[in-house]
Amino acid sequence: IDLTEAYLHIPIRPSHFKFLRFCYEGRHFEYRAMPFGLSSAPRAFTKILAALTAHIRQTPIRIQCYLDDILILSSSAHQARANIKTTIQVLPTHGFSINTKKSQLSPSTRLSHLGSIIDTSQNMVFLSPDRLNNISNMISIRSLRKESH
């Protein structure tokens, strides 16, 4: 499950608005929600989502979160459907929107998650083709740099 503009769901204390101001094309703006790029945003968001995750785990649903990416682990397709349904009902009640275009909301034994492919039918986790390509390109660039020196 992918959350839509996750940081923007976290309100900022009104007395702190003044610290999050900026000017664009002569107009002045201030964030009233946590902006992307704020150095403390990942930690703050993780702590907030951890509290919600703890609540969801009490149902009990096996859930893992990394920033705005949520992975639900289930022992069967039937259980996965029930866990997904519960989770997508709980998230909006706590102010989070689900990005349905980027989320996989049906059970699967093979899933792309955080640059890895998780295949539970083969009990394997491996790098996605994009990630492998990026690593190969980095290695090629480093090799070229070494050769040019």
UniProtKB/TrEMBL annotation:
InterPro entries: DNA/RNA_pol_sf, Hepadnavirus_pol/RT, Rev_trsase/Diguanyl_cyclase, RT_dom. Pfam families: RVT_1. SUPFAM superfamilies: DNA/RNA polymerases. Its EC number is 3.1.26.4. GO terms for molecular function: RNA-DNA hybrid ribonuclease activity. It comes from the Eukaryota. Residues 1-118 form the Reverse transcriptase domain. Belongs to the beta type-B retroviral polymerase family. HERV class-II K(HML-2) pol subfamily. This is ribonuclease H. It comes from Micrurus surinamensis (Surinam coral snake).
